[in-house]
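can u pls check wat happens w/ iron/sulfur cluster
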Amino acid sequence: MTQEDVVLPAPREAEGRSEAEAGEREPLLVVEGLTKHFPVKGGFPIRRTVGQVQAVDGIDLTVAVGESFGLVGESGCGKSTTGRLITRLLEPTGGKVSYRGQDISHASRRELAPIRSEIQMIFQDPYSSLNPRQTVGKIISGPMEINGIEPEGGREKRVRELLEIVGLNPEHFNRFPHEFSGGQRQRIGVARALALEPKLIVADEPVSALDVSIQAQVVNLLQQVQRELDIAFLFIAHDLAVVRHFSQRVAVMYLGKIIEVGDRTSIYTRPRHPYTHALLSAVPEVAVGEDSAPQRERIRLAGDVPSPISPPSGCRFRTRCWKAAEKCAAEEPPLVRISGNHEGHLTACHFPEEPTTEARDEDIVLDPALAALEDGGEG
Amino acid sequence: MTSSTDIEGGGTPVLVDGDTEPTAETGTRVPVGRSPGQLMWLRFKRDRAGVISAYVVILFFLVGLLAPLISQLYGKNPYTVYADERPELFDSAGVPVQPNGGISGEFWFGLEPGNGYDVFTKLLYGIRNSLGISLAVTLATVLTGIVLGVAAGYLGGRTDFLISRVIDFLLAIPAQLFFIASMPVVVSLFVSPRDETPVYVRVVALIAVQWFLGWMSLGRILRGTSLALREREFIEAAKVSGAPPGRIIRKEILPNVVTPILVQATYMLPNFVTAEAGLSFLGVGLVEPTPDWGQMFSKAATELVMQNDITYMFFPGVSMIIFIVAFNLLGDSVRDAFDPKTAR
Ligand SMILES: Nc1ncnc2c1ncn2[C@@H]1O[C@H](COP(=O)(O)OP(=O)(O)OP(=O)(O)O)[C@@H](O)[C@H]1O
Ligand code: SF4
Ligand SMILES: [Mg+2]
């Protein structure tokens, strides 16, 4: 992963807009107890529901106006489902989604119409997110057409403008998606999302399908868009590296639940949840320039994420946690501000870790096979 | 602030992707994109066999379309009973006197035994009627396939379950037997068995019967395609923008199922032609004096047995073989052009 170290820009800790300030802005999106269970069908000859995939199980989050909020977690932990619930591509099983104070959890297509243009989405797969039969111009002007928006100077002019904003040649509006590379396609997707001048963009792993060398460019573009147009982002990613450059606040998800949330500094330098520690130790070292940077801890997690159909009792992380105790199986840890946490930094763990990422006396390697391998490699 | 965007000062971003712009190599090219359809057309034009078979197929359709005109120029029509008009051409058994089924400068393809119809015009009109019926069946099945297939795939749930079970049920019916058995039944729905059956009733019955058991394969394919398309992110993008279902089906789904529709239709049409011919051959399709491609075979077959004369099999047989082969080759080429990855 050395390549990533080089291409990803260093985190901007000293930003014009301070993290605290961002927290004080008025909330744009408020999610409370959001739940989505997918029924599992089975049985023969009569198919019936035999179980529930607890894809998202009661999450709370708030995104302020113009804020970039990162949502991080391993594959299958319910990030996309959360994004789709917020954009109302899915109907929530429970909980509440409010946008600007308006409850949209079960709003119909018609009821949603007025705010449709304000919440947009950027998708993960640039090869499936653009209709291969439409020209770039059609793709980008589609949302304007649907919402009956006729910008000054016509839609075509606006399409050219948007193409220019996302760094594509504006003359390419009558080309077809197959004539563009993955990175360029993702830029087209960004232009489409911007066409309606949204206030909130849900970006579902917008760069994870791209070449590492192109990822940074697209992230930069998104960041620029976010700042200049003052758009709030819910940025979904599967590792903490990408989000670090982008989000003022970060939530870590595990098996349908948020296990830790806080501002960037808290999550990256003072994490408390064991899972966050584990995720962070997987992030490549970014601070290349600082020689004085202390050695970081190393944690290897064992096994796979348990099935969301029958998640572990109590703390869902306990099957892979090195601190798991009886209490963890019996009692679900609440997401609260534990002593030592900064304001707004919430952790769901009975036995939180020290708020540091410095190297431990002994690496945590839970997988015996891996441990043997590493020993062999060193010896 | 160390990232590259900040250095740019927040102005209009320059193109930063590492990959080349589509026009970068040729500065002079006008930036007009080629649609997937245009690309397929280009690929198709390069396929010699496909182009030739397309011409052959077009020729057959032209012949069918222009049959009345050609007959007029030729000066005959398929309904004239030459056994009465020109009895000198036939022997006492009603067989043309001249060899090879009475082929002459006047009757290019000869005369039929019995009533003595002119084979050439009969073949022209036979092609016309057969192709017309098959085209109608194809249109009806394609429309049904689109409506039911896309509905099942896109709506899913109960609709899908219901339509899929109907498809399963209809696929379980033995088609040939059903056609033969149901044709008289369907016809008798319109006219009492004692009356003369008008031609249009037989035509409608032929179309209806074949349509009834003809749409399922396309319906199934379109169901699968729409099911896959439904999961594609561009559909979700349209939904996020607030697109109503009608628009999503029209603008996002249908343009993407044109390929399987065209490919499937080019496979279906020749099948309908042979099926229609088969029914008329068995006497449950179009009957004399209405000219029909398949019915010409039944006449020819009788003659082949009775007189040991293959002449009457020759013209309808050769023309139909050419047509079916050309159409199937065309179907292959269309599929190859649309989907260059699958090998033949
Ligand atoms: N339509 C659906 N029907 C049934 N189960 C689903 C459906 N969509 C998602 N799931 C399940 O819900 C869980 C969460 O899925 P989700 O796509 O939200 O994960 P994710 O965090 O986005 O993962 P990834 O990083 O792989 O995209 C998974 O176990 C998945 O199998
Ligand atoms: S609650 Fe227990 S099992 Fe869960 S993360 Fe904390 S220590 Fe580990
Ligand atoms: Mg996902």
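The two ends of chain B are 58 Å apart (CA to CA).
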